[in-house]
Amino acid sequence: MQNLVAVLGLVLICLVESALTGGNRCSSLTTGVCVSRSQGCPADYIEQAAYSNYIGCYTLDKICCTLKVSTDSTTTTTTTTTTPTTPSPTPQPQCGTSSSVVFDRILGGVPTAPCDWPFVVSIRSLLRDQTNIDLSTTGPACQGVLVDKRWVLTSAFCALAAGGSIEDTSYVDRMLVVAAEYNVSQVDIDPSTGQPQEQVIRVERMILHPDYRFKSQSEFYPFNDAVALNSNNVALIKLAEPINGKCSGVICLPTQSEVNNSCQGYDDCVITGWGFSTELFEGTPMELLGARVKLSSRDACGFLAERLGLTTVRPVGSLCQSPVFQNTDSCLGDEGGAVMCFNGRSWTVRALLPFNLCTNNKYNLFVTDVHPYITWIQNTISRN
Predict the structure, then answer these.
(1) Who contacts 198 (Cβ-Cβ below 8 Å, separation ≥6)?
(2) Strands 199-208 vs 175-179: parallel, antiparallel or unpaired
(3) Which of 144, 116, 106, 57 is nearest to 324 (CA)?
(4) Residue 230 burial (C-beta neighbours within 10 Å; 0-12, 13-18, 19+)
(5) Could you give the strand order of the β-sheet that contains 62-67, starting from the edge strand earlier in sequence?
(6) Which residues, in sequence order, are bridge partners of residue 67?
(7) Which end is more exposed in the chain, N or C (fewer Cβ atoms within 10 Å of the end residue's Cβ)?
(8) Percent of residues, the chain, with pLDDT higher than 70
(9) Could you tell me how far CA 56 lies from the centroid of its own chain?
């Protein structure tokens, strides 16, 4: 009973905070209104599923509805009739645009399709005994996500795993970033042109978050301190040239209001990767895999970690995730990938995948929360 009271208290706190900062999210939408779930949206209204939740409508018993946008209209009076007009199209988002059918393909670690995830990049590392860097002399190490045409957001663990050491500037000769990547074992070809779909880009610079403890890949071993490895586990990689392909794009960063809202959780999220697909480190996929996950709010994650006695093993700057389907998780090789969440219109990077050995057939509870690092990310990009 005490646990139930605590949970209800947490929900109440979130609802009060939401009300004090401008009401529910549904009412902030043009024509947005919350109605009983059993009643359904009124005629000429359509449900906005991304807002049919606690923050959207204060309760799961209600759904968020907005007025359907008419494609044409005719206005009449007793004397004149206006000609039909078409309203201006809704401007497309400048970031976070992906495949409109992506959720039809992602069920629990299944292959995606080319161009589904234009923000996702493969980060490759120079193979042993090789000196000249290109696709044939490198192998996939981890991944990242494009937050600017020349900047990749990834984990610090991934950056060092691919580059070796931040203190040795020759890391730029050991790393490649492949945008519009799908199959890491071959060059992906655009069927409409017969030309390469992917863009292979050299690295100009990598920058680790200043509070990340490690400076070199050699310091990781023997991988027995996952808390340290995953605390403040954020890095940025600057590309030597901007992305330019039709299958490459930039994901959205959280807004400041989202950063300030510790009560917001996210249900429609996806993780991707080319890492190991079993805990025996077998079955490395060649094609990009994806799976659905959920992210709790920061307040709920703190409560959960405390109740489960996990506060001592929770990395600094982390958030709680859970799979939508059983046994869906990231594994070795997926580090640095984004937890991408859909808001009904565009995709936003909410978290990053940590170092994870995916052992004991259990999913990893903690991922790196992007929200606390937004100021550092934005300042680093603008100053470099």
Answers:
(1) 178, 179, 180, 181, 182, 187, 188, 245, 247
(2) antiparallel
(3) 106
(4) buried
(5) 33-36, 62-67, 45-47
(6) 45
(7) N
(8) 73
(9) 21
72: amino acid identity, one letter? D
Q: Reduce the DSSP state of residue 259 to 3 states and report it.
A: helix
CB-CB contact of 367 with 337 (8 Å): no
- pLDDT, residue 1, reads 43
Per-residue pLDDT band at 70 (split at 50, 70, 90) = low
List, as one string, the DSSP characters of 220-252.
Answer: STT---HHHHHTT--EEEEESS----TT---PB
User: In DSSP terms, which residues pair with 289 in a beta bridge?
Assistant: 111, 273
Q: Do the Cβ atoms of 205 and 384 come closer than 8 Å?
A: yes
What's the pLDDT at 3? Answer: 44
By DSSP bridging, strand 138-148 and strand 62-67 are unpaired
- Mean pLDDT is highest, among 38-47, 156-165, 282-291, 334-343, for 156-165
Angstrom distances, CA of residue 151 to CA of 203, 253, 338: 10, 12, 14
pLDDT in tens, 304-351: 999 999 999 999 999 998 877 655 555 655 789 999 998 888 899 999
Give the whole-angstrom CA distance, residue 2 versus residue 114: 49
CA 114 to chain CA centroid, Å, is 18
Task: Give the pLDDT of residue 240.
Answer: 97
Question: How far is residue 371's CA from residue 301's CA, in Å, rounded to a whole number?
Answer: 14
